[in-house]
Amino acid sequence: METCEHCCTKIDNLTVKFGDNAILDNVNLHVNCGEVIGVVGPNGAGKTTLLRTILGEIHYQGRIRFQIEGSVSKRPKIGYVPQKLQFDLSSPISVADIVASAISSHPVWIGINHDLLEKVKSVLSLFSAEHLLKRRIGELSGGELQRVLLAIAMTPEPDLLLLDEPASGVDVKGLSLFYQIVDDLRKKHDIAVILVTHDLAGVSCYVDRLILLNRSVIAEGEPKAVLSNEKLVKTFGPSLWNISCLPNLAGKEDNKNDNH
Hints:
By secondary structure, this protein is of the alpha/beta class.
């Protein structure tokens, strides 16, 4: 594997079968530190299965290797934001309760002391979510909930961050903020991010590479190139040509060149 200052993940010939049905077939993928990879594909393409396999939840054939600070023997710390969170909308559990339970072994049912509450506030403030402290989980919008889950996934700081459909149930404004936060995180902490999404227009402005997955990797490369790939158009339809983010990609590339 290539030398990496922080963490890189290399997936070789990954195959996942349920019975005789191949959910993933010979997938090859390399994600380096400081890189955001967007994974797109139709329903049933194996996108969530890919994340769960990386998490170690699913048996597979092939090889997944992690390199942490030059060593291939370490297991990375992985942060994970799932596609759906099942909870009772009428539950009195607050944002403070759920974050406190995630970052501390202190039983929150006996109350949150001042020191722990300050830690919770500090964690939420990094994700523009400190104002949600006393809100009940069931009262949060889709974007607010995603930011709370991201705060939990980033505490303690992971080597690899996996995001499964963060666009689900989030409005345009909330989604833009979410993507910006993720972009800032990778720059500040040099973490690797794999982001599964159907939001081709929004995510293409923030990822370094797009992967078109349909059981195997169909196309891979810079967003502009992949979004112009006829295989992607066949998968998602001709409406792709109207994606509003595409003109901005050239500006993004120009900005990168200006920085250099």
